[in-house]
Each structure stands twice: as C-alpha cells, then as structure tokens.
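Re: the pair you flagged

First of the two:
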Amino acid sequence: TAYETRFGLSIPEWRLIAVLYEEKSATQQDLARRTVMDKVAVSRAAAGLVRRGLVRRTTDESDGRARRLRLSPAGMTLYGEIAPLAVRYESELLASLPQNEISILKKLLVRIETAADAMSHKNHL
C-alpha cells in the first residue's frame, strides 16, 4: 500500500493514527469499536506505533487499570503529512461520481459503520 511504501505504516496503523487525531485520546477498546478492527489487530498496530514513537501510552485518569493512547508530536506531524494525500486520493477516486451519488455513498457507509458498531457491541468482537 502507499502508506506502507511511503510512510512505513500498515493500514491498521494509519487507521489508529487517523482516529487518534480526531479523538485526541482513546483506549484500545475505543479504537477497536471505532475502527471496527479486532482487538488483536488494534493491539499490534498500537504496539508498533508506540515502538516508533508515534503514539504515547498513559494511564487513564478515571480507571487506573486502563491505558489511553494519544498521538505524540511525531505522530501529529506524520498525520499532517498523510492527511492531505489521503484527501486528494479520495477526491480522485470519487471524481467520476456525481455529487448526489457521493452523498448517497457517504450515507450508506455511515449506516454500514453504525451496523458494524452495533454488531461488535452485541457479539463482543
């Protein structure tokens, strides 16, 4: 993938970086729910990002047993490099679709994400 070749990131690692940028901090459980990835994939991706210094792990203030993840300054910088490229890629990918179809696609994707989130809560994935 382009993320791996150019930035040395797997797709799961990029997904975690993108969510952590939006959320500011999250537990691995939060990340698993939000990315609809299994706990093992989130754990591996998080460990790799921590090793590379892109993510920092801290103790959750409200639950001393839980660990929170947040982007380090290096992680924020990397996000700033990748995000514009991802937005441009998305624009190029959708360029052949009329705006009304893009709107429908986005609504459908939100519905799928909501259904997947509900299923993961129900099935404890």
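Second of the two:
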Amino acid sequence: MNFRYTSVGFYACVGVSIPLYIGLIYFTPRSEFTWLISEFGVLFLLYFISLWLLLPDKTSQVTKPIPFYLSPTLLIGIGILLRLVLLPATPNLSDDYFRFIWDGRLLTQGIPPFLYTPEQLIELSKSVKIEGLSEELFKGMNSPGYFTIYPPVNQLIFWLGAISSPHSIQGSIWVMKFCLLLAEIGTLFLLKNLLSHLKLPSVWIALYALNPLVIVELNGNLHFEALLIFFLLLTIWTLLKYPYWVASLPFALAIASKLLPLMFFPLFIRRLGWGKTIGFSLLSFLWLGLMFLPLLDLNTLFHLFESVGLYFQSFEFNASMYYLVRWWGYQEYGYNIIQSAGKNLAAIVFVLIWVFVVLEKQPQIGNLPNAMMWILLIYFTGASIVHPWYVCTLVALCSLSSYRFPILWTALLPLTYFTYITEAYTENLWLVGLEYVLLWSFIAWELWKPKQIKIS
C-alpha cells in the first residue's frame, strides 16, 4: 500500500476519533446505551482500520518498513494525545472514583481505610466529625457496606489526590488521572523497548496505544489497571535486562496495585529455576510487606481479605463459566449457588494454572507476556466478575504476543454497558452469551491457525 495513502488514512481515523472520544466521555451517560454503543462502535471501526493500515501484511515475517511519520515514537505521541483529551473529564461510565477519594481523605486524617466501612464511618461521624467525609461521596459509592479492597500503591495515589485537593472532588480526580497518565506514558515506552528487544514488529505498539477501551476505561474512567500494567511490563523488562532479584521490586509494586499478579509466581519456576524463584518470591513479599507496613495491623489484613473474598462470592457481572454453573445450580437446587460456585471455580482455576505451567512449551522470559495472558484468561473464565477494564491488561500483554483475541474482546465489552440502562442494573444474558461465543470462537481459530512470527 502506498505510504502516502496509508498516512492520510491513518491520520484521518485519528482526527475523526477525537470528537468521538469527547462525545463519549464528556456528554454520554452510561444509561444512554444506544449512543454509547454507537460511539464505541465507530471508535473501534476507526481503530481496526488504523491497525489494517499499520500492521504487517500476511506475507511479512517481521514488518513492512514504515516512514518516519508513522514511526512507533509518533504512535506513542498520538496515544498520549488521545489520553490527554480525556484528562479533564469526570468519569461518566464508572462511579468507583467516589471510593478512591473517600479512602484518600481518610488517609489524610490518619485513618487507615481498611479499618471501617463507609457505613460505619458515616454513623460514627454523627457524633465525631471526620474532615472530608461528605454525604456526596457516601451516596456516590456503589459498595458502602464493604471494606476497601484497594492495596497500598492505589492508596498512595488516593492520598495524593486528597492531600492536593482536600475540598474538591474534581481536583482530586485530576490529580489521580495525571498519575495514571504518567503510568500510561511509561507503559507505552516500555512496550516500544520490549518490542525492539524481542525483535517484534514495532508497530504492534498501536494495539495498545490506540485501543478505544484502554483509553476510555483507564484514562477516561480512572481505573487503576494502568498501574498494574506498567509495573508488570517493568517486571518483564527488568528480568530481560538485569539480575532476577532486581525485578522483585516492580513485581511487588504490581501486586500492591492489584493482587492478581500473585497468580504469576508459578510461571517463574521453569524460567528461573526453583532456587531463584524462591529468592525472587521472598524478596517480592519482603517489598510487599514494607509497602503494607504504614497501613498494617491484623484488622487491616483481615478486612482486606474478607472484602476480597466477599467481592468474589457476592457480586456477579459479565461472567462466562460462572453463569453456566449458576444456571445449573438453579436447575438442581432452585437458588443461586454463588457461595459454593465461587470457591469451587477458584479451585478449578488454581489447578488449571498449574496444568498450564507444567505443559507450557519452552518457557523463557521472552514469552512471559504470552504466558501471563493465558493465565489471566483462565482466571477470567472462572471469575464471577469481569469488568471491561480488567481486560486492558490482556491488551498490553497481547501486544508482545502473536495472539489477538484480547483485541476482539475489547470491541465486544462495551455491550456490557447495557446493564446500566436502568438503576436496577440488570444484565442482558443474551448479549453476554454473544460476547463469549464470539470470543471463544475466535480463540479456537487463533489456536488452530499457524503463527507466522515466533516469539523468543
């Protein structure tokens, strides 16, 4: 394809997408499903056209040469620009930020956010005034009866948002968004360096840099997977370039952003050996303990793990295998078996992760992103909750892999916003079924078709 037409077509897609992002994030409430899905649909259409213009053709083993005006550095710049467009916006598709600000304001008052639920504190504030805990924040929260589930790195960002803007919700949002923007910029440059080091096509960075769901959920809706992704990629980069013990710090930071990376420890056994894996794990937990130390007491740990357990045994959203098990439970017992189903599926996921680890072919640091991607897919398949922003981590990992099913998944996930049409928050299970039938059909096709580019 002529480079001139490629560049004109690509920049036309970028130019058209900017007002669509503005309309989606600034002016479209999540209850307006028709508008929301239409805007997402056009954004993904432009995204896929951009990928078609940029990515290697079927006959290329590495990549076709690209001119400077479509270079990876410029793609990073465009990715940053699209994220900057959403920086001033108050999240309109998620209300999680109320809890972020609540936790941050507690920290500014010297109150560990793990000790009390918001309901307990609101009751307590009737007799003892607690600065910053307003009715507006309390009413905006979606789970005021639960202890917070956000680990130390997130809490640090919450504190920065609260301390820098103690009386303004919007000001706190801007500060937290800026922190996530810095993490996203770091992620983009890490992807560029990792692609170069692994001798993969440099334009694969566009898979993550331009993905509409990633941009909307992380930078528009203020979700902290941005930190998890940055620290995971930093862990991989550090393992490739430095002694294994150096990588224990960014890996601990990844866990302290979200507990999910705990599942990845088995992946290091065949890559580092048992001795180094034990040392890596001990160092990681040492760093993690230091990060928890300012918030640490027995109640903190108890409430944190209690909340995590209740979260996965009480909430349901956009699940796949879990919904099939739940349906069977209704047929067999006549009621929702979430308590037992959650535990049993977690046990199955644990076993499947170890099966994957044992059967994995030629494990090495270079294909660690690919392995992490499959581990997360196993986990999400058994989970009772799969929010759209959870899949953003898969997009980053698949940018360093030859599999593309996470890209399709991100295009299907906006269908889940049907749930918010009314305040009853009722899912359309036909849409959920369509999502997973298409996803797993594509996964089956990707597993069947031969890979053209080997990742080493």
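The chain is about 65% helix and 0% strand.

-B.
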